[in-house]
Amino acid sequence: MDRKITIALAALFAVFHLAHAEPPEWSGNPDKEITIKTLPGMMRYDTPEIVVEPGAKVKITIENPDDLEHNFVLLDQDKDDKDGQKFGELSFQLGAKGIEMNWVPDSPRVLAKTGMIGLKASTEVYFIAPEKVGMYPYICTVPGHSLLMRGKMKVAKDNFIVRDVTWKLFDAKGKKISKLADFDGMEPIKTGKAKNNLISLQPANQNKLRNNYALIFEGKFTAPKTEVYEFLLNSDDGSRLAVNGEEFINNDGIHPPKTVSHKEELEKGEHTFRLGFFDGGGGAKLSLVAKTKFLGSIPFSADQNAKNPKKKTQAPILLTAANPGEAIVHRTFVGGAKPRGIGVGYPGGINLVWDADVLNLAFVYRGGFMDVGGHWNGRGSGSKIAGFDSENLSHGLPMQELESLDEPWEPFYDKTIKYERDKENPEKEITYTDRHPDYQFRGYQLDKKRFPTFMYDYKNLKVTDRFDPTEIDGAEALIRKIKVEGDAGENIWMRVLNHGSDEIENGWIKTAQKVWIKIEGVEPTTRTASGMKETIVPIKGGEEITVTYKYTKAIGGKVKK
What CA–CA distance (Å, rounded) separates 492 from 402? Predict the structure, then answer.
């Protein structure tokens, strides 16, 4: 028989044998299904990276629309050959056995492989992912192909809260609709997977539907612990949300943007959701977010009417207390404070950031404490708060000598310097915040519950600043104790609130925000200076000032009056 025919038959037999190998028992229900295609004429896979969980049962379909034969070989890790290129070069040494071996060198490093995938053909490969996290290369081992035809499989814990989100798009075709039930019995005109697993109106926008359409989203989400979830659904027009097959929110009908919320305790583990939405004409808006004390805000949707959703619902890497009842203290740069911010997460879901650059409270917030995922993901953007309802109440230097109550407050000690980077303006000035000469930070002490007491000096005064969590009317609150020792002299004031109103009810100063305050131990003065409304208190020395901060409503509750 002609040698070329023999080689061709051998190759065809190898393809048939491997492509039709007996699949494992779990092949009909894998944990992860992935499709990888070859790019015609480019000698590349279309997917340079795939992600699977440790120990996951994986099914990969490799489609080959190219005019060349290829294969797929998944390799174990090798610190001296991270991309698999050295292994790919071994195929040159196979010689005449290469075709018989489908150009795959015999090696314990091979974790999974296909036979040769013919022109315009496809095949499937099944394997169980390694338990060890890390990057595993995959390549085409046909001689010369691995130089370009390769990728990496990332084995890592699934870091996404919301996943497997699909959509169905329905068109009423001019029929006037007023509720979601009007679409019952209709067939979707298109279906697809939600980009970045985020709900958006992108499918309707891409199909140029402006009214009389509906979208049905279905997906899964993971609760890392058992706790109460508050779902907030905003839509224009109607929408309905079901979780685990139970309707949580009915926001149906024709209406302008309207938010409806629902609170429910969900068990730790995986849950399903179904969200229906329709637009009957005019504007169209849709957003869904869940709030929890542990995770903070969980976005299920992209920006309203987003044409290109980019934000991913990636699970935060949360800092948690080492032991129940303890606080978490985290020193970091975080938005809303100067570079020397000190975050404190208290039991009960209330948190704060204390600013060591200005020696004062920067802001309070509730929900999740700190997401430190930015230190490892992306470009290492650092920490960010994981919660919500952040309130800046009196950020800036806490004390000042005022000759009169008309004198404006100077919250930061700003300086200017000149630099010569700008050739067109070599004398250009920049402003920066420096340490005020009247202040000295003395650090902080932790008690047995790791609650910090902050300490600093102001002129001849020694100040301690401590916070304790509590609950008032079912909502999160903080009790702040400020002790001042020494002789202050004349005209020293402390600013407690940099906004608000003169309205006081039962001792509570009502602000325009979600947090009200009460001041005890000294008599507060509310003033307006340079257009700023502030609450300040006199300091003589020897004071113990109690400031209570309370949220005006519990999460999902009504404003307390």
Answer: 6
What is the CB neighbour count within 10 angstroms for residue 465? 22
Query: What is the residue extent of each domain of the chain?
Result: 3-155, 162-299, 328-401+437-551
Query: For residues 46 and 38, what is the distance between their CA atoms, to the nearest angstrom?
Result: 6
Helix (H, G, I), strand (E, B) or coil at 85: helix
Per-residue pLDDT reduced to its tens digit, 78-110:
999 999 999 999 999 999 899 999 999 999 999
- Which DSSP string corresponds to 174-221? T----SGGGGTTPPPSEEEEPGGG-B-SHHHHHTT--SSEEEEEEEEE
CATH T-level assignment (fold) for domain 3-155: Immunoglobulin-like (2.60.40)
Class of 162-299 in CATH: mainly beta
| Cα torsion 92, 96, 99, 101: sign | negative
Residue 323 CB: number of other CB atoms within 10 A? 7
Q: Are 3-155 and 162-299 in the same CATH fold?
A: no
For residue range 393-440, list pLDDT tens digits in order.
Answer: 999 999 999 999 999 999 987 766 665 555 555 556 666 667 789 999
Considering only CA atoms, which of 149, 150, 143, 147 is closest in space to residue 92?
A: 143
Question: Using the 8-state DSSP alphabet, how is residue 303 labeled?
Answer: S
Q: Three-state DSSP class for 445?
A: strand
How many angstroms separate the CA atoms of 250 and 260, rounded?
A: 8
**Torsion sign across C-alpha atoms 219, 225, 228, 234:** negative
- Virtual CA dihedral for 540, 541, 542, 544, nearest 10 degrees? 70
Q: What is the pLDDT of residues 194-209, one digit of tens each?
A: 887 889 999 999 988 8
Tell me the C-alpha distance between 134 and 127, whole Å: 17
Each residue of 111-127: b (16+ CB within 10 Å) or e? bbbbbbbbeebbbbbbb
Helix (H, G, I), strand (E, B) or coil at 7: helix
CA–CA separation, 485 vs 466, rounded Å?
15
Point out which residues pair with 266 in neighbouring strands: 227
Alpha carbons 51 and 160: distance in angstroms, whole number? 12
